[in-house]
Structure formats: C-alpha cells, structure tokens
Amino acid sequence: MNAMLVCADCAVRDKALCGALSDGELAALNRIGRRRHLRRGETLIWAGEDNAVCANLLSGVMKLTAGTADGREQIVGLVYPADFVGRPWPGEAGVTVTALSDVELCTFPRAAFEAVLEDHVRMERLLLQRTFAALDEARNRMLALGRLSAGEKVAAFLLAMADRGSGCRATGFGPVTFDLPLTRGEMAEILGLTIETVSRQLGRLKAAGTIALPGARGVTIRDRAALEAAAGN
Amino acid sequence: MNAMLVCADCAVRDKALCGALSDGELAALNRIGRRRHLRRGETLIWAGEDNAVCANLLSGVMKLTAGTADGREQIVGLVYPADFVGRPWPGEAGVTVTALSDVELCTFPRAAFEAVLEDHVRMERLLLQRTFAALDEARNRMLALGRLSAGEKVAAFLLAMADRGSGCRATGFGPVTFDLPLTRGEMAEILGLTIETVSRQLGRLKAAGTIALPGARGVTIRDRAALEAAAGN
DNA sequence: CGAGTACTTGATCGTGATCAACGGGTGTGG
DNA sequence: CCACACCCGTTGATCACGATCAAGTACTCG
Question: What positions does the domain HTH crp-type occupy (chains A, B) (predicted)?
Fold first, then answer.
C-alpha cells in the first residue's frame, strides 16, 4: 500500500489530530500508521495492559469501559470518527476500548507515535485540547450518573445522541430521526441503569408521544421541547 | 513583592507544572503570577463564565462541581496542592471551582498563561500528562457513581482519601488516622448519595470495627483488609 | 450561654433493581 | 423452506436500597 495514499484518502484527514500537520509532515505518520479493521465486539485495548497502540477512529463507533473486580461494567465514553484513543506515554491502560459496530482505525505503535508528537507541537496542542474536552464530557456524565433520575438520564442521552447523530443541525423543531449505535444493554451501561429500566423509560417517552421508536435501533424525536423538559432543562 | 521570591519560597515548586521550568525560565511565570488567598466556601471560577484565570493550588483543598438547572450538585473532582486548575484557552468554564478549606493559590491571567505555555513545550507536556491522569480519575469515579452500592462507594472513598492523606505510605496494616477535608454533605456530593446515607454507611463501618471516627473530621482505618473487602476489591 | 451548623438516628416511601415470562427478528442447519 | 435457537427487547410482579421526612444530639462560635 502506498504510504501517501493512506492519508490522501483518509475520511477524517482534517478533523483528526493529523489536521495539525502539513501534507509533507504527514509522511512521518504515514510511515508508522497502519489501517486496521475490527468487527463489532472486538477489543483494541484492554484495561490493565501496557499502552501499546494509539489510534484515530476512521469509521464506526467504539466504547470505553471500566469494570469492577466482580464483573460489573460501566461505559465511560464513546469514540466517534476522527476521535483519538490510547495514551502516547508508557503506562497501564485505564479503560477497555471495544468496537460497538464494525470499525476502521488508523493505528500507531505507541512509542513511534510518542516520537512524532515530540516533533509536532501543534499536534500535541490539539491533543491537549481534545483531552480537556473529553474531561469536560466525563464530568458532565458524572453529574448525570450521580444526580439525574432514570427518566432524566434517558432523555438527556437521547438529546445528546440526536445532536451527535444528526450533525448538530440547528435546534430545529419538527421530527428528527436517527439510529442508535447501541443496544439497550449498552445504553444501560452508559447511564448506570439496567436494561429493563432503559426499556421502560423509552416506553414511557413513546407513550407520551415525545419520541417514536421505528425499528430496533431507530429513534424519532417528535417533540424536542418535551424531551428537553424530561431531561431537566 | 519581589518576583523571584514568589517562586523561591513556593511550597509546591517542583511538584507543580512549574517543575518543568528552570529557575531562569520561572521569571516569565513570576511576572504574571499572583498569590491569592480564598476562604473556605469562596469560589475561584464559576461554571459558565469565560475562562479568565489558571492557577496552581499551593495549600488547602478545592472542589470542582457541576450542577443541574434545578440546583442539584455533584462534585466532579478534588484539587490538591500542586494541582492545576483552569483552562489555558478561551472558552466557557465547565465546572465551578470552590475552596473546601482556606486555600492559597498562585494565579495567572488566562491569556498570559497561554503565552507562557506556548514557549515552554515541556510544561505543556506535563499539563497533557496531568490532564490524562485527571481523565482516568474521572472515569474511575464514573464507574463508582454508576455501579457501586452506597457501602462500596463510602469504603472506596475512605481508601482513596487514606492514600492521599497519609502520603501513599505503604499499604501497611495497623491503624492509619487522617482528617477528611470534607463535610458529610460534601462526601455525599462526591459519591452521588445523600448525607444521611453517608452517615449511616460510616456508622455501619464503625459498628463493624473496620474504622473509628475520632472527632468531627477524623477517620481511623482499623482494619484495612475489611475496608477493601467492603469496597469490593 | 444561646444560636447555628454539622452530624446521627429513626420511620416511611418510592425509584429502580431483580426475577420471570414472553414476543419478535435473524441466522443456521436440517 | 421451515424449524429451531439465540439474542434483543418488552412487560409484569415483587423486592430492597437509598431517598425523604423528621427528631434529636454534639460542636463551634458569637
């Protein structure tokens, strides 16, 4: 595979960290980067193992999970195309990174990526800004986990997914439809609930006419104002 | 106040971000830094306001809180001496930063700090590493908030505070005593519980002989193994 | 010494977990 | 092509954990 081609046809070329680099500079990344596919359910990084790879997600969605000793699991973050996963420095991974759908990744050996980062301050700055953003998001989720009721959690989650899924289109009223990249069980893992509770809350919103649930994964927001009210805004 | 003196007698000189700088380079920070005191309960940064200051904490403890529209609050992080608070780039603060005890800070105007960061790559790297660490911690707390029972939350919290408070002394058995920098109400805000539940769980651990509660804020761990078992490890 | 705040303890209630059964879609193999 | 199994989701019944409401106790500080 021609090295330049790897980046030339990259779907997230200017949205990912690499956007900090000129076409010329990309050569450094090209040399160490490798495309990789994972099927739904396959894991890229296991919590507790030494950091071995960093990666940009090209397509699909992944989840970050933390778990207790006795097997309970909590999804602590979602990874979308152009997002970065992994840690550039030696140490133990704190979370497990698993594909929620079939995914395509651009992976880098950790040490090699560290070296590239060393030479490209702008890329390091972008990484820092992304990390701050991830921290803000994590803290928002902490608020949700600790203080929202089940109904509020589900409503807030749907709103967040709608904004992600439909590309931040203006807060238009009128129905918006999108597909969840998650099963009910995974929604429960994100929200700190059980699968039954998630199902019931969705049912309640549907019964109220706030949303519709076309097909297994589809969601239609029929009354955004009501959904926002249910989310406690 | 003599600029050099500010850093020369700094309690956290080599543990904070500034540790990345040589004595000479510190001049840049010295010029823009200002010591500031806050009393217990006073707030340095309000969520929603534009980023105006960055700071290193010199002494005392602070809390980071997020809140819902209707006034519920969740503590999403604690800040200890040598820790950094604030964001170097323009934007809105996501969390409120409030003193839990009387604190001493070394504050920098945001824009000026951004400029210093620009010139000192090693400091930026340290900040990135700290931010990754903060993210790991936040994600661990998400696991606790979403999946641990009240008893597990309280036990795990005491263990974490013991390790912080007593300076990571080896996992020695035998009693360890320390003071919590938090009220019961604040513990509840961290753990996503109510004050009564926290009090009851502490009472239960005390009744079991696992801990003792000398004075209002004191905690003695009498049986670390039992406490770890209660935390689900 | 009195007032206020933090903490504890008790009684009751409600939300969400748990246990259980069932329906619908999908893929596999006979 | 259908039968079957499996997974995912829904729905119902019950239970328990933690919230809420309510007193009452211990420290601190004026």
Answer: 148-225
